[in-house]
Design a protein that fits this description.
With 112 residues, the chain is α+β, with helices and mostly antiparallel strands. It is built from 4 helices and 3 strands. A hairpin with a 2-residue loop joins strand 2 and strand 3.
Length: 112
């Protein structure tokens, strides 16, 4: 995942056409952008992911546990069967820490 990336690309057309293309590109790739500049057909802008903390935690957890597997572990834990729960919960806490670090770094880079 890119925290911050500067794009420099040549485009043809008027400044308004170029800006529309950049906005379409950002929308297509789920990017927000800052520092949009057009000079001599070249565009420079900084793009970053719109992913939220909650979505990132979910994506990280899903790398190891499907939704149905997660529910099964939680149902067993509620019924007193904790054999997998400790491992699962430790993994979720690691995912939450990674997500918090990523979001904090992204926000610090963007001055949010």
């Amino acid at each position: 995942m890119e925290l911050n990336k500067t794009y420099k690309r040549p485009y043809k057309g008027t400044q308004e056409q170029i800006i529309r293309r950049v906005k379409s590109y950002c929308k297509l790739h789920n990017l927000s952008y800052t520092n949009l500049q057009v000079f001599n057909g070249y565009v420079t802008f900084t793009g970053y992911s719109n992913i939220t903390y909650d979505n990132l935690v979910n994506d990280l957890v899903r790398e190891k546990y499907s939704e149905s597997a997660e529910f099964a572990i939680l149902r067993k834990a509620i019924n007193g069967i904790n054999d997998e729960y400790t491992t699962y919960n430790a993994y979720v806490e690691q995912c939450k820490a990674k997500a918090k670090e990523w979001v904090t770094n992204r926000d610090n880079l963007l001055g949010v």
